Amino acid sequence: MEIIEQCVVALTWTLKDTLGEELDVLDDPVEFLVGGEDLLGRIEEALQGHSQGDTLALHLEPEDAFGDFNDQLLFLEPRGLFPAEIEEGMTFEGSALPEDCNPDAPRSGLYTVTEIYPEHVVLDGNHPLAGIALRLQLTVEGVREATEEEIGKGTAGTGFFRIQPQAPGNALLH
C-alpha cells in the first residue's frame, strides 16, 4: 500500500543534528496518522507515495521542524514556588505552574526546568529541539488504512516528538 492522506504508517528513525550528533533513535516501529496531527508537515509531504520498506533521508530546517528558539519563552521563577524534589529536565504543563509564576508565561505551553539556582528556577517554554536543523533517517516499516476512530481523533496515538510532562531521568523525545 502506498502512503496517502488518512493512512497509518509505522516508522523507525534516527534523528541527528547537522553536526551528526545522535539526538534520538526509534528502533521499534511506532504508528503515526498521515493527514492528522501526528507528524510534521514536511515529513508527511516527503512520505507521500512511498510504501513499506522505503527509506528516506530528510533535512529539516527549524521552520520545518520545531521553530526558532524564542528567548521570550524563558522565565526565571522563585525557587520557593516549586517542590523540593524538582530536578533539571523535569517538565510542567503551563496550566500546572504555580499561581505566583510570571503571568506572561503562556499557560497552554509545556515548560522544561533547565537550571536550578538556590533562589531561582529557569523554565524554558521552547520545544527541546527549537532552533536546531535536523537530519532524519526514516524507514517505513508498515502502511495500513486508518480506522474511522483514528481519523476522527486526528491521531494514531503518538505524535512526532510530542513532548509530554515527564519525571526526571526520562530523556526520551518520542
- Name the shape in a single word: elongated
The CATH topology name of the largest domain reads Chitinase A, domain 3
Structure class:
mainly beta
Beta content comes to: 35-45%
Query: What's the CATH C level of the largest domain?
Result: Alpha Beta
The tally of strands reads: 8
Sequence of secondary-structure elements: EEHEEEEEEH
Strand order, largest beta sheet: 2-1-8-3
Q: Gyration radius, to the nearest Å?
A: 18 Å
Distance between the termini: 26 Å
- Relative helix content: under 10%
Q: Total number of helical segments?
A: 2
- The CATH level-2 architecture of the largest domain is identified as Roll
Using brief descriptors, characterize the structure shown.
Thrombin, subunit H; 36% strand; disordered C terminus; elongated; 8 strands; 4-stranded antiparallel beta sheet; 174 residues; Chitinase A, domain 3; mainly beta; single chain
